[in-house]
Specification:
6-stranded mixed sheet, 426 residues, 51% helix, alpha+beta, 2 domains, Phosphatase 2c, domain 1
Length: 426
């Protein structure tokens, strides 16, 4: 706006404009005259914090009010300078506040977003001195060459531009540092997950863990008693990122304290919930625990506000959602965790997962849902657990719009109950 204003005051530009554009020139000059302060205040808002930021917001409202009133007066009366004194007063106030903030170290440390502001201080002081000189010289009828005004404003703009670049570079360095820290956090998070699936007689087990971002709020663990007894724990912390990942590491610690009661799903959930209760600070956690006893070929299951356990029964082609929920972890209320028991038949396939499996949406806003999950299990029942556990996340990714990243953390454990080996007669 300042550059356009200077051009419109230039004698060659004025003489080259057609008469039909002269009226538009006057309108533009009035607009620029009153709106430059608005643009400048917006710029300074990006450089300030706290009370000074709020003060500049009030200043911005005054700038806009004067600009609107002045432009309205110009439209209806043709007066170009009716409110110019108020506009100039706001300019002086803005410059004084900025010079004081930049010049006094205690104020700059408290109210500026940039730690190093030497260039901005020099540019502002040069411009303020030049503006003061011009405003004093005019009443005294002292001729001030226009080049000084232009150079002062150019130095001021360059100092602001330099400061903007400095902020961008600082932020970029900070983001690179955060990326490095997140990469380390991701490695640490994967290190607390099981390194491999357990080898349990009569079971085929596969697990998939796909975080939405660098770190996730999902967690899973195997509680192995011996080669015929195993427990599967899946948990999902509300939210994403580092806070959720930290709670996931707490769940890891909590599960180490429940090995002694691994065969009792209700006790496992109660113990984990009581350990987390005082440490998750308002976060909510859902969890599910499945215990399989291959000596008796039975299973017990309980959950804390978690999506249901899915069972595909090959023998009769049925798809069942097994629900046995108590309250989420993190709710300050006593909760009991009901347990359901069921037999394990050859050909049964179980899916224990977080809501990242069924809740992703397509372009039309439709969730992947249980019906598609059932169709997936039906269509791929002949695949091994490892093949199915790889295929399911791929189908979920295809269901989502191609231009949308993964919508949630995905964690799943797939367990197949194998046929009982036939014993040969001597």
């Amino acid at each position: 706006m300042y550059g356009a204003q200077e051009l419109l005051w230039s004698r060659p530009v004025i003489e080259s404009l057609p008469l039909s554009v002269q009226a538009a020139r006057q309108v533009l000059l009035v607009l620029f005259n009153y709106l430059i302060i608005v643009a400048a205040t917006f710029a300074f808002l990006e450089l300030t914090l706290g009370k000074l930021h709020r003060l500049l917001q009030i200043h911005l409202v005054a700038d806009v009010a004067v600009a609107v009133a002045a432009i309205t007066l110009f439209v209806f009366s043709g007066s170009q300078n009716a409110l110019l004194v108020y506009n100039q007063s706001l300019v002086v106030i803005l410059l004084v506040v900025l010079v004081l903030t930049l010049s006094i170290p205690s104020l700059s440390r408290r109210f500026l977003v940039v730690a190093q502001h030497r260039v901005l201080t020099i540019g502002t002081l040069i411009f303020a001195a030049q503006a003061l000189w011009v405003n004093v010289a005019r009443p005294l009828h002292i001729k001030v060459p226009d080049i000084y005004n232009t150079l002062g404003f150019a130095i001021f703009l360059l100092s602001i531009g330099y400061t903007g670049v400095e902020i961008m570079v600082t932020d970029e360095r900070r983001l690179l540092s955060l990326d490095d820290e997140l990469a380390i956090a991701r490695q640490l998070q994967f290190s607390i997950l099981p390194e491999h699936t357990p080898q349990i007689a009569g079971l085929d087990i596969a697990a998939v863990y796909k975080p939405m971002s660098a770190v996730a709020g999902d967690f899973y663990e195997f509680l192995v008693a011996d080669e015929r007894h195993v427990g599967f724990l899946v948990a999902d912390v509300s939210g994403h990122g580092v806070p959720a990942a930290l709670i996931g590491s707490m769940i890891k610690v909590a599960t180490q304290a429940v090995n002694g009661c691994a065969s009792d799903p209700a006790q496992v959930l109660c113990s984990v919930g009581s350990i987390l209760k005082d440490n998750i600070r308002g976060q909510l956690v859902s969890a599910a625990y499945l215990w399989m006893d291959m000596a008796t070929r039975t299973a017990t299951y309980s959950a804390a506000g978690h999506p249901p356990l899915i069972r595909w029964r090959k023998s009769d082609g049925t798809f069942n959602r097994i629900e046995s929920n108590g309250l989420l972890f993190g709710i300050n209320a006593a909760s009991e965790y009901p347990v359901c028991s069921f037999p394990l038949l050859p050909g049964d396939r179980f899916l224990l997962s977080t809501d990242g499996v069924t809740e992703p949406e397509n372009q039309a806003g439709q969730q992947f849902g249980d019906s598609r999950l059932e169709q997936m299990m039906r269509d791929h029942q002949s695949r091994s657990v490892s093949e199915f556990s790889e295929r399911l996340p791929a189908e979920i990714q295809l269901w989502q719009p191609s231009n949308v990243a993964q919508q949630d953390d995905i964690t799943l454990i797939v367990v197949d109950v194998l046929p009982i080996p036939q014993t040969r007669m001597p």
